[in-house]
Amino acid sequence: MNIPAELKYTKDHEWVKIEGNTATIGITHFAQSELGDIVYVDVDTIDETVEKDEVFGSVEAVKTVSDLLMPLTGEVIAFNEVLEDEPEKVNTDPYGDGWMIKIAISDTSQIEELLSAEDYKELIGA
User: Fold this and answer.
1) Whether the Cβ atoms of residue 102 and residue 73 lie closer than 8 Å to each other
2) Which residues contact 34 (CB under 8 A, 6 or more apart)?
3) d(CA 122, CA 46)
4) Could you tell me the pTM of the whole model?
5) What digits encode the pLDDT tens for the residues 65-102?
6) CA distances in angstroms from 88 to 6, 56, 100, 108, 111, listed in the order given
7) Rounded to whole angstroms, what are the CA distances from 95 to 14, 34, 47?
8) Neighbouring-strand partners of residue 105
């Protein structure tokens, strides 16, 4: 199971890469493997501020649709438009080309509430 040590994680299986006051967010390798083949990624919160734990979009797999939950309060400043034509990037490269959104972090103190790679491994039993 691929769980990069430099990232932070949520109990809802999103990963977060912190770069200053910007965070890049996607779903984990574990999440994409549980969902199966991803056929559509929907994010309609561009330029909106979304509170921590609120829905920022959804991911549709062959058999299910799953909400994407915001790991940190922030303004959605970018969506990975590659996913419009190639949603399978979430399956093939969840931590690279399969990233979903970038946000401007509103409350950096929330970063402390995210899980480390070790904590996430424990959560999923890896």
Assistant:
1) no
2) 13
3) 33
4) 0.96
5) 999 999 999 999 999 999 999 999 999 999 999 999 99
6) 24, 19, 12, 31, 28
7) 10, 16, 23
8) 74
